Amino acid sequence: MRLDAHLTGRSLANEAGWPPSKVSKIEAGQQTPSDADITTWALVCGRDQLIAELVAALRSLEQQYVEFRRMFRTGLPSRQRSIAEIESNTTLTRNFEPCFVPGLLQTAEYARYRFAEGDPDESERGVPKSDAELDEAIAARMDRQRILHRGDKKVHFVMTEAVLKYHVCPPDVMTGQIGHLISMTTVPAIRVGIIPFGVPLEVGPIHGFYLYDDKLVLVELFTAVLNVSQANEIGAYERVFGHLANAAVYGADARTLLTRTLGQQQVSTS
């Protein structure tokens, strides 16, 4: 808009009553503009008809991208309870995981290592501040799992076989976790699918995500969580999940894969 209005950064700043550095920071992505900033910018550039659209886009982006620092400011247990609230208002939850056992299928021991994991150079990425907070977060995650036994809820999990191979916890913890997964394949209200190595894939397993009905998708990144709520994007995730689910094995075939992996796990630790 500034270039179309034939304005330099300094001239726009002068018209808006801002320091010149504010314009350069906003344009470089170093500062997020407020609703008022966008309104002023558009007015100075003679594009007041775009104000409502731009403000709406800003708010949508702020809701979609939530940094870990903000998200975990109230603590890990609070985050678990907020997810539980979403799940309680969802009829069909679909979850794909390429690296980790889905949270709703984790044992308490496996969950402990997941919660304790973090960037060693970054202490604010949601790592628990104390043993008490860690215990509370684990208890909250275990409480979330009650939804798996409710008759009015359906949960469909898909994970890659790699989930069973990554060393993200001690071998004895993984042995218990795989045993738990075997038992969970028999729970009537849920589907547990595993994509075996060597199966042709129409869509690559780029990242994990939760899909709540057709209303919301949560994608966890290294530094933030994306909240996707636009219908066309949700539809894309539904199609991706469908492709991945079709590549997975279920029931007896999934138990065979899990049992074989469990045997290999036990041999390697003996």
**Low-pLDDT ranges:** none
Q: Label the overall shape.
A: elongated
Q: Based on the structure given, which CATH architecture of the largest domain is correct?
A: 2-Layer Sandwich
Instruction: Bin the helical content.
Output: 40-55%
**Mean pLDDT, all residues:** 89
CATH-defined topology of the largest domain = Endonuclease, Chain A
H/E series:
HHHHEHHEHHEHEEEEHH
Number of strands: 7
Number of domains: 2
Strand content: 5-15%
Taking the sheet with the most strands, its summary is: 7 strands, mixed
Structural class by secondary-structure content:
alpha/beta
Major β-sheet strand ordering: 1-7-6-5-2-3-4
- By DSSP (H or I, 4+ residues per run), the number of helices equals 11
CATH class of the largest domain: Alpha Beta
Distance between the first and last residues' Cα: 67 Å
Blueprint of the fold:
Elements: H1 9-16, H2 20-27, H3 35-44, H4 51-64, E1 65-67, H5 68-71, H6 76-88, E2 92-97, H7 108-116, H8 131-144, E3 154-160, H9 171-184, E4 190-195, E5 209-212, E6 216-220, E7 224-228, H10 231-246, H11 251-269
Parallel strand pairs: 2-3, 3-4
Antiparallel strand pairs: 1-7, 2-5, 5-6, 6-7
Overview of the molecule:
The chain is of the alpha/beta class and 270 residues long. It has 11 helices and 7 strands. The chain has 2 domains: 38 residues, no CATH class; 203 residues, Endonuclease, Chain A (2-Layer Sandwich), CATH 3.30.870. Helix content is 48%, strand content 13%.
